[in-house]
Amino acid sequence: MKKLRNEENEWDHRILAGAKGPADCIRIDKVVAALKKMKKHKAPGLSGQVTVAEMIQMTADIGTQLILDLCNGTVKEGCIPEDWKSSLVVPIYNGKGNPMEYGSYRGIKLLEHVLKVVERIFKNRIRQQIDTDDVQFGFMKGKGITDMTDSVVVVRNEYTSVVV
Q1: pLDDT per residue over 27-80, tens digit each?
Q2: 3-class secondary structure, 25
């Protein structure tokens, strides 16, 4: 958990060289879809505002429009609000092992719920624009690093049985 923190990585902005024209605006149906997928009964973020998924969903069109405006403002300005750049990592006991040992905990980040909606919208937009293949593991639904490790072990076992 020591490595779980907000870090801004250095980059040289070359990726923007291929970008042409303004980014497309987010549509209201994308906000509605993201809101429907939000999990309920989750802790609020750090801002002190108790704006959680249930509250956003209950506001119906008003909340949806506010989030749409935030999304499109983020696209237009190219940056996110300052208070979204911070989070809190909280250790949660995983129910296994000695509770006094560091390895018995996993870290969760407390983020603003509106930020989670915005992230989901942008993640879906990015996923639609990139091509992945069958060798992509991690950051893919149903294809985590553990799956990749298992595949490597299977291949290694098959290879060593052929060589011997």
Answers
A1: 899 988 888 888 777 777 776 666 677 777 788 788 889 888 988 888 888 888
A2: coil
Residue 4 pLDDT: 47
**Distance in angstroms (rounded) separating the CA atoms of residues 25 and 69:** 10
Distance between CA atoms of residues 66 and 80, nearest Å: 15
Q: How many domains does the chain have?
A: 2
The confidence score (pLDDT) of residue 1 equals 47
> What is the sign, positive or negative, of the torsion defined by CA atoms of 54, 116, 35, 146?
negative
Q: Has residue 9 been placed in a domain?
A: no
Q: Are residues 142 and 113 in the same domain?
A: no
Q: Which two tokens stand for residue 108?
A: 């969760």
Please indicate, yes or no, whether residues 83 and 144 belong to a single structural domain of this protein.
no
Query: Are both 76 and 150 inside the same structural domain?
Result: no
